[in-house]
Inverse folding.
C-alpha cells in the first residue's frame, strides 16, 4: 500500500498526541492508515493499561468518537487531522483537575499533608 506524504504526516501528528497522553511512552500507541473505498481511515490502538485514561481524556476534551467496546480509534481524515492538532499540554494546564494522579503522601501545592 502506498501512503501519501500528507497521510504520513497526519499519522505522525496523531501518534505524537496519543504518545503525550500515554506519558511519553511511544510504544503504547500504534497508528495505521488504511484504504476504505476512495478515502482513508486512520486507526489508533492504545495499550490496554493506558487506554481507559486516554479514552476518558479524549471523550471529555474533544469530539473524537470513542469506541464503546474499547477497540481502536477509527477516524476519518478530518477527525485524524483534528486529533493531530489537539494539544493535551494546553488542556491539562487549563484544567487543574486533569494534572494527573497524585502520589501517596505528596500533597498538591498549597495543601497540607494530613495522616
Amino acid at each position: 500500500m502506498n501512503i501519501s506524504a500528507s497521510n504520513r504526516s497526519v499519522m505522525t501528528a496523531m501518534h505524537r498526541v496519543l504518545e503525550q497522553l500515554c506519558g511519553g511512552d511511544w510504544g503504547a500507541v500504534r497508528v495505521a492508515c488504511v484504504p476504505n473505498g476512495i478515502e482513508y481511515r486512520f486507526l489508533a490502538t492504545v495499550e490496554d493499561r493506558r487506554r481507559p485514561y486516554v479514552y476518558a481524556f479524549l471523550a471529555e476534551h474533544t469530539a473524537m468518537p470513542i469506541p464503546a467496546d474499547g477497540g481502536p480509534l477509527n477516524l476519518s481524515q478530518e477527525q485524524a487531522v483534528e486529533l493531530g492538532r489537539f494539544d493535551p499540554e494546553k488542556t491539562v494546564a487549563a484544567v487543574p483537575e486533569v494534572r494527573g494522579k497524585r502520589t501517596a503522601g505528596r500533597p498538591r501545592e498549597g495543601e497540607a499533608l494530613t495522616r
The two ends are 59 Å apart (CA to CA). DSSP finds four helices and three strands in the chain. The chain has a mean pLDDT of 83.
